[in-house]
Small CPxCG-related zinc finger protein (Halostagnicola larsenii XH-48), 55 residues
Amino acid sequence: MTGVESGDGAGGPPPEPEPRPCPHCGVPVTAVIQLVPTAHHAYPCGCVVPADLLE
């Protein structure tokens, strides 16, 4: 399979989106972690962020 069969026309998988910077410290956020219902933390920096930061 060459990637053309997938219908993307580019011959490969789509590029990964750039990580968003943390609104507090600027570190690229790769995930938002929820340990309790009211607290969401950016990974890897650990800053408290909104739950929908990466949406």
Summary: The chain has a mean pLDDT of 86. The two ends are 32 Å apart (CA to CA).
